[in-house]
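Pipeline run #58 for the internal structure catalog. This entry was flagged by the ingest filter as a single-chain record with no existing model, so it goes straight to prediction. Upstream metadata was stripped on purpose; only the residue string is passed forward. Reviewer on rotation: M.T. Logging verbosity set to normal.
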Amino acid sequence: MKPGFGHAKGAEFERQIAKSIVHAFGAHGIKQRECWRSTLSGGHAMSCGDLYLSDRLAKLFPWAVECKYYRKIDWQNFLIPPKYRKKSWKEWQWVEQAQAAVQAKPELNLSALLVMKENRGPIYAMIVHKALGGCPKLMLFSDFLRSAVNAND
């Protein structure tokens, strides 16, 4: 990839995830206008995280979504106990961004969801709850989405 094109790659990934969520909840009457990539990629008060969710969709899918698409993800960094983590690791900065998105609008009662992909790899979803002691729960995004839809059936 040419230098400077990472933003376009990330923006396209965010749009792909938004479309996947809409497709998964299509049987519930959700349309594309109810989920889209946030302006400034979540850097404003209108939405939590990288995707805007309508109120109706947020009731079905109560997640603040933070999307990351990188050339390489150092997966082992997610396994390090909290006291040994380095703040400079991009992977833990992502987790902090996802948690900050939730804290920006606590009245929405959303949970943090980190959706990640590395080049030529599958898409993963990660949930990090303080109740889990900061240990991440990682799964394929398709499995996560399927379980989220089934929770509403």
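catalog note: The chain has a mean pLDDT of 85.
catalog note: The beta strands are 35-37, 51-53, 63-70, 111-118, 123-128, 136-140.
status: ready for reviewer M.T.
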